Amino acid sequence: MECRICPRRCGVDREKGNIGYCGADEKIRVARAALHYWEEPCISGDEGSGTVFFSGCNLHCVYCQNYKISGGETGKVISIEELAEIFLRLQAKGANNINLVTPTHYVLPIRAALQMAKARGLIIPIAYNCGGYESVTALKALAGYVDIYLTDFKYVSTVLAEKYSSAEDYFEVAAAALQEMVRQVGNAVFVPGDGAAQKDGLMKKGVIVRHLLLPGQIDDSKRVLSYLHQTYGERIFISIMNQYTPLPHVAKWPELNRKVTDEEYEEVIDYAIEIGIENGFIQEGETAEESFIPDFGTDMILEL
User: Fold this and answer.
1) Are 170 and 154 in contact (CB under 8 A)?
2) Please, which residues bridge with residue 202 across strands?
3) CB atoms within 10 A of CB 299
4) Which of 72-76, 169-173, 295-299 has the highest mean pLDDT?
5) Given this model, what pLDDT does residue 54 score?
6) pLDDT bracket for residue 194 (50, 70, 90)
7) How many whole angstroms separate alpha carbon 104 and alpha carbon 59?
8) 99, 39 in Cβ contact below 8 A?
């Protein structure tokens, strides 16, 4: 069967063992499954997010922070039944949610695993953590299974999208995908926390849109924030991230081979405040360090 699950629509027959644009065949490959403490506070909380990192990716951005797994070759092959068991074991370890990272190319087996796990007592929220380059049809298949969408919104510029992600249509696709995400889960709902703001609690459902600031791309970042706020107002939460880390493989793109400066980040934050964004997250302190990039390897799934 020709694979059309993501906007690449590469048409590869993954069921016959062929490798799609995403780097995956039909087998589920997981690079890491463990409690994770470096998401937004309303996702990680004190107990951690039950994060499952899937191997492969349908974007392959040149600056990829998880390049060790995005090619699809790293990780352990598991069955749908084993994936359901991982969800349940993460819940038993006290995870605040199940956090599915780069899950796009495994939508159907993930849905089957969630059905199985829910029948066996999985009750914590399910978070879909993606790059934003999603098929609306695939997202509709997840309606009723996903409670929280953690989606990137990388670019408005078609030039940047093509140059860094080989996806000239990124804005058009990500905008349609985000519309479907908001339609599915609606306004954010939080478990009350200790602080004054609603986001001091844990998110039970809702949409968080992440934007990773790239060096030298302030103007496009402002365009992203403007589009998000004008379109959705306070219905979504916007996470403005400065943790970009220039890893060795970006040497071919000299303009990306540095960290984001404090001045660049502050200008984008000031702009967000100026246009009226209130529901959001910012990063403070020295966040652009490799410690924010998880350790990957086939043994990491055995942490559970």
Assistant:
1) yes
2) 191
3) 10
4) 169-173
5) 95
6) low
7) 10
8) yes
- Other Cβ atoms less than 10 A from the Cβ of 28: the count is 22
The 10 Å CB-count burial string (b at 16+, else e) for 153-163 is bbbbbeebbee
Do residues 14 and 25 touch, judged by C-beta distance below 8 A?
A: yes
**How confident is the model over 26-56, as pLDDT tens digits?**
899 999 999 999 899 999 999 999 999 999 9
Mean of pLDDT over the chain: 90
- Helices then strands, each counted (H, E), the chain: 9, 10
Which residues have CB under 8 Å from 146's CB, separation 6+? 126, 127, 128, 184, 185
DSSP for 264-280, written as a single string: HHHHHHHHHHHTT--SE
Spatial separation of the C-alpha atoms in residues 40 and 49, rounded to whole Å: 10
Rounded distance between C-alpha atoms, residue 54 and residue 30, angstroms: 4
Separation of CA 243 from chain center:
14
